[in-house]
Design a protein that fits this description.
The complex is a heterotrimer of chains A (149), B (342) and C (374). Chain A has 149 residues and is of the alpha/beta class. Chain A is built from five helices and five strands. Chain A starts with a helix and ends with a helix. Chain B is elongated and about 115 Å long. The chains are: A alpha/beta (149), B alpha+beta (342), C alpha+beta (374). Chains A and C meet through strand 1, helix 2 and helix 3 of A and helix 1, helix 4 and helix 5 of C.
């Protein structure tokens, strides 16, 4: 019963999916920290789960590795329109330290999918991620409203 | 069972109700602690453009040294530029920055004591292809098999090299295998330039000897190194390294000396158009031919052109052993005679 | 029927593919397919100087990043034949234990999330924030701390830092008792954890399980007992349990937290005065060094040529833990959701795991990356 109430409440919130396409995990744990009661992402109407099929916002972390070159586009296509992609951390933007001799990454991620916003930092603080998500989040809602009309 | 009590207690104390009605992020969340390393702050005016930050940065695209365009007020500023999309906020650039006060500031990292700000020095072993006789003695001697034959040339694999220096000891050709210092290249250049200029000036000062030098005979000088030694130590303060750099340079040095006997000059100005760098010019006020020493290539064309033997051309070779005296040998060039004989 | 889960799935935090072989509702076998986060970090570190290498080693894994830098630094100190000064060793212990606390709490919170118990997930994450605060205060960053250097630590700490750290760990201790009790004696949770995903001691040895996963199965082994700092200056006891199920592993991680807290208190109380860093001249040589990371034993093997790192190989605890999880824990589990929670109870860290070659008991070697870097 509790789950069904949660589902109703979360129906109108922004759904966020984390896509880790090959990073050191640091940005992912900072996104998890955002869920904690201290930062409490859900009070802003943002619901983090890992299902790309119902996501409005894809949080992209990690430099793109070999396995993700084709899969990233597939994951992106699975998300329904309208959708925005937010790159968290340096890896999706420039490849960070991995993008040098010996590394095996295909950064930046914008070569594969369109990236709407980027949060620099290695990793960014939760408060920085929060600010950035709130800055681009209303855009997703506005787009969704337009679609309904 | 006690945990069920906790659930009931949690529900009963109504903390959830407060949190529900009063949901907001506290402003303290965005406050960063004192030591927090944010993106480095650049103080442009202190930068000396040494490049220590770019060498030390672990992330390849994070720091670039940029130079502004020159304008009327003077030269453009040189300073590091940080790209936040690649900066990993480690603060290492602020640590190694040698300026005082620091050009880069990051958290408390720029306050770390300077004695730890070592940019690693490397002595790199390389083969001089021109001198190498491919005896492969170094290949056999190398304890880690770092030397191999690539495209018929001996090549040192820098990743495997342990910098033991045994290849240099075993090499039969002086200078074919070199252990070069890859750091402070500019200082090394300055040092070599100092030694070369000193030697040229020394030989040029012996005008009388040079002018009276017979064909096919030699002049020998012992040039003391100590005259420039204090100055050399100012450039690179390490005795051993300075000596090694100077002796490496001097032992393979061949200086072409041009002696200009102004008394003989008839001001025919034949040499002026022939000079490839236009360093010879005619000074009308003083009524003399002037040679700009800094631009001269010592190519000997003026010497070949001059019909009055005003210009003399010598070749000097040097050797420096451990006795701190540079042995110089000066020989007159026989180029002109050959041409005349034809 | 084979049920593939991942690489993106609500239950998984990191990209990995679990292939569950099911018979009806029961999961009889599991297989793990790696290779989604292979970045070639070891190859990147090769040919770099140690000053840069320490920042690169930090990015092997984001959760236990601290232990990687400490092991890297201690390996190179070992090559040069020096030891960090005592004050630096104490500061390292403080950071190490804070990192262990946050990693264990994160591991447990993902376990609760995988069991769909959001209350405990939130409670545990709230406790973790205090540890993160203390880390950020001391080192300047929450995750990748950049705090260790070869020869010591970067910055000194004084009363201004120790006092808030003590306050923060007091807060952790305060909430910890209640959270642990909620888990250990809760009617719903304990029933779903006990006797699920059992791995016996023999199997744990066979699967080379290390860290809290091995200790949960009765292997009483903690490398900190042999580490010179802990041996010389600190008292602590190794926590271990016999049961070898999800309950034992999770409770083992919980019980290690008070030990870490007491270690931090000991370190702050007895911290000696002196230098925090000594200059080190790198020699050429070869060394191997081990350390107890939150997930188990980390081994670094480094060969240097006097200036550069010639070769580095890193062994992280996640591969043996995840492999023994797939092989011995998820074996005849009652349902798929139990299989997922069993996987989460082994505290997997995929980012650590994706660099190595694995040799199985038949002597076959395979790389964790599938992209063909041989």
């Amino acid at each position: 019963m509790l789950d069904s109430i949660k589902d109703i409440v979360r129906k109108s919130s922004i759904h966020v999916c984390i896509v880790n396409c090959g990073g050191c995990n640091g940005c992912d744990v900072e996104v998890v920290a955002l869920l904690s009661p201290r930062y409490d992402l859900e009070q802003y109407g943002i619901y983090v789960h890992n299902n790309p099929r119902e996501a409005d916002v894809l949080l992209l972390t990690g430099a793109v590795t070999e396995q993700w070159r084709e899969n990233l586009k597939r994951v992106y296509d699975k998300a329904p329109e309208p959708k925005i992609v937010v790159a968290v951390g340096n890896c999706p933007q420039s490849g960070d330290v991995f993008n040098q001799e010996g590394g095996h990454v295909y950064a930046p991620a914008s070569d594969f999918i369109p990236v709407d916003a980027a949060i620099p930092g290695c990793p960014p603080r939760p408060s920085e991620i929060l600010e950035a998500i709130l800055a681009v989040g209303p855009q997703a809602i506005a787009n969704r409203g337009r679609e309904e009309k | 069972m006690s945990s069920l009590m906790w659930y009931i207690y949690d529900f009963a104390r109504k903390a959830w109700a407060d949190a529900f009605t009063n949901a907001k992020s506290l402003p303290e969340l965005a406050e960063k602690p004192e030591r927090f390393r944010d993106f480095p702050k650049v103080n442009k005016e202190y930068c000396i453009g040494c490049g220590a930050c770019t060498v030390s940065c672990p992330s390849p695209n994070a720091i670039k040294i940029v130079r502004e365009k020159d304008d009327e007020t003077g030269e453009g500023m040189t300073y590091p530029e940080i790209y936040p999309g690649a900066c990993i906020r480690c603060g290492f650039c602020a640590e190694v920055c040698p300026t005082d006060p620091k050009t880069l500031e990051c958290g408390h990292n720029h306050l770390i004591k300077p004695e730890f700000n070592i940019i690693p020095s490397k002595r790199q072993y390389i083969v001089d292809d021109y001198l190498c006789i491919k005896c492969k003695k170094c290949m056999k001697k190398c304890p880690v098999n770092a030397i191999s034959l690539v495209n018929d040339k001996l090549h040192v694999d820098q990743l495997n090299c342990i910098a033991c220096g045994e290849c240099v000891d075993v090499c039969p050709v002086n200078g074919a295998m070199k252990g070069v210092f890859v750091e402070n290249l500019q200082d090394q250049k300055d040092l070599i330039l100092l030694a070369v200029n000193y030697l040229e000036d020394y030989i040029n000062s012996k005008e009388e000897d040079l002018r009276s030098l017979e064909k096919d005979s030699l002049l020998q000088y012992n040039v003391p190194l100590d005259d420039i030694w204090d100055e050399a130590l100012k450039i690179i303060p390490d005795d051993e390294i300075s000596f090694e750099i100077i002796s490496n340079a001097v032992n393979r040095l061949k200086i072409r000396i041009i002696d200009w006997d102004k008394d003989k000059c008839k001001k025919c100005q034949l040499c002026i158009p022939d000079c490839p760098t236009k360093c010879i010019s005619f000074d009308e006020k003083e009524d003399t031919i002037v040679r700009d020493k800094d631009r001269c290539l010592r190519c000997s064309i003026c010497y070949q052109t001059c019909p009055f033997s005003v210009i003399k051309y010598f070749i000097a070779k040097f050797s420096l052993e451990d006795d701190r005296i540079i042995h110089a040998t000066v020989k007159a060039s026989n180029l002109n005679e050959e041409i005349l004989m034809e | 029927m084979i049920l593939p889960i991942g690489p993106i799935h609500p239950a998984l935090k990191e990209p990995i593919r679990l292939k569950l072989q099911t018979e009806g509702e029961r999961v009889v076998k599991a297989e793990i397919e790696y290779g989604y986060v292979h970045r070639g970090i070891e190859k990147i570190i090769e040919g770099q100087t140690w000053q840069r290498g320490i920042y690169l080693s930090e990015r092997v894994c984001g959760i236990c990043s601290y232990e990687h830098t400490q092991t890297f630094a201690e390996t190179i100190e070992n090559i040069c034949g020096v030891q960090a000064p005592p004050r630096a060793q104490f500061l390292r212990v403080i950071t190490n234990e804070l990192d262990r606390i946050q990693s264990h709490l994160l591991g447990n919170s993902t376990f609760f999330k995988s069991m769909d118990h959001e209350t405990l997930f939130m409670h545990v994450l709230e406790l973790r924030e205090y540890a993160m605060d203390a880390i950020e205060l001391l080192t300047g960053n929450r995750v990748n701390m950049g705090w260790n250097v070869v020869g010591g630590v970067k910055m000194d700490a004084d009363e201004r830092h120790f006092k808030p750290i003590l306050e923060n760990i007091a807060k952790i201790e305060e909430g910890f008792e209640r959270t642990r009790e909620l888990f250990a004696e809760g009617p719903a949770l304990a029933l779903r954890c006990k006797d699920v995903g059992v791995m016996t001691k023999k199997e744990a040895i066979k699967g080379r399980a290390v860290g809290p996963i091995g200790r949960g199965s009765g292997i009483k082994y903690d490398y900190r007992e042999d580490h010179y700092t802990y041996k010389d200056y600190f008292d602590f006891k190794t926590i271990w349990r016999k049961e070898g199920d999800n309950y034992a592993r999770t409770l083992n991680r919980f019980d290690e937290i008070p030990e870490s807290i007491s270690l931090i208190r000991q370190a702050i109380d007895n911290i000696p005065k002196g230098d925090i860093r000594i200059p080190v001249e790198l020699k050429s040589g070869y060394a191997q060094w081990r350390n107890e990371a939150p997930r188990g034993e980390v081994t670094y093997t480094i060969e240097t040529n006097g200036n550069l790192i010639k070769h580095i190989s890193i062994r992280t605890p996640s591969i043996p833990n995840m492999d023994s999880c797939a092989k011995y824990m998820i074996r005849d589990v009652a349902s798929v959701s139990d299989a997922i929670s069993t996987y989460a109870s082994s505290d997997p860290c995929v980012a650590c795991a994706e660099r190595v070659a694995v040799t199985n008991e038949h002597g076959e070697t395979y790389l964790t990356d599938i992209c063909g870097v041989k």
